[in-house]
Amino acid sequence: MYEDILVPTDGSAGASAALDEAIDLADAFDATVHSLYVVDVAAVGPDTGAVDLAESFERMGEEATEAAATRARDAGVDATRSVATGSPHRAILDYADDHDIDLVVMGTHGRTGLERYLLGSVTEKVVRAAEIPVLTVRASEEEGEE
Amino acid sequence: MRFVVAVDGSAESDRALDHAVEMATAAGSTLTAVHSVDPDVYDLGGSEPPANSSEFEERLVVESVSDAETRGERLLGDAVDRAAEAGLDADAELLYGDPVETIPDFATREGYDGVFVGHRGLSEEHERVLGSVAKGVVERSSVPVTVVR
């Protein structure tokens, strides 16, 4: 029922918990895990020197998605990875459309205090706008506070 | 694996139920339909806000708990029937209180593996006014939550 599962990553504990959940599901359904990192253009900004910053974000994205895809393959699951540029929630939804994604798996913030009630703005926007199911996973305690 | 699906009789909740039934069937999991009894408050009308407390009491009618309970039991019965038609033997549990709190608490306390909720796809402005059960459940749940449109 799930053939293609998208897991956006930003290198956080929440994203890591989401990846574990996605790998379990992909294993159960013989699905492919798509790891996606989005270089946030708004975070990079238009200033001088921004080119270097964009490049370093892109390199970070390459590393994060490579690590995610490796973790999936080590678990015996097919995986593919991609780095996009743009506004994160838009880029995630566009990727889902373009690749016939059946499920998006995303992390939410920490367990305690105020963070417990903060969904994460990208996750929230994706949940609000996605036409496909979105599975949200909270980072577990062992994976540390954000 | 054991899953929970929240039902409230809306089209979105039916889609969440259908999705949960498919997932539970595919994964060989059990499925529990839950509905939280949270009596509705009706405003009998008037375009101006109530002027004083007596007018307030005359205008606002709180649904009785037993009516809300009967409604909840019917919704759960419908959900179990709908799952049975799809070949899944689901059970049901009536909760009491604000669904945003009772559903995540129930799932955590009873050790469920996942929660399914429907989402209406409200705009950000609408949602700020009306709230969203899906969003509240996602925010409060320590169990993974799948939001189905």
Would you give an account of this structure?
The complex is a heterodimer of chains A (146) and B (149). Chain A is of the alpha/beta class and 146 residues long. Chain A has one domain: 3-Layer(aba) Sandwich (Rossmann fold). Helices cover 45% and strands 23% of the residues of chain A. Chain A is built from five helices and five strands; from the N terminus they run E-H-E-H-H-E-H-E-H-E. Chain A has helices spanning 13-29, 41-44, 50-74, 88-98, 121-129; strands at residues 4-8, 32-40, 78-86, 103-108, 134-138. A five-stranded parallel β-sheet of chain A has the order 3-2-1-4-5, sandwiched between helices. In chain A, helix 1 links the parallel strand 1 (4-8) and strand 2. Chain A starts with a strand and ends in an 8-residue tail after the last strand. With 149 residues, chain B is an alpha/beta fold. Chain B has one domain (2-148): Rossmann fold. Chain B is 48% helix and 23% strand. Chain B has helices at residues 11-27, 53-59, 65-85, 99-109, 124-130, 133-140; strands at 2-6, 30-37, 41-43, 60-62, 91-96, 114-118, 145-148. In chain B, helix 1 (11-27) links the parallel strand 1 (2-6) and strand 2 (30-37). In chain B, helix 4 runs parallel beside helix 6 (133-140). Chain B is elongated, with a radius of gyration of 17 Å. The relative contact order of chain B is 0.23. Classes of the chains: A alpha/beta (146), B alpha/beta (149). Chain A binds chain B through residues 1, 21, 28-29, 103, 108, 111, 116-119, 123-124, 127-138, and chain B through 19, 22-23, 26-27, 114, 119, 121-122, 124, 127, 134-135, 138-142, 144-149. Strand 5 of chain A pairs antiparallel with strand 7 (145-148) of chain B, so a sheet runs across the interface.
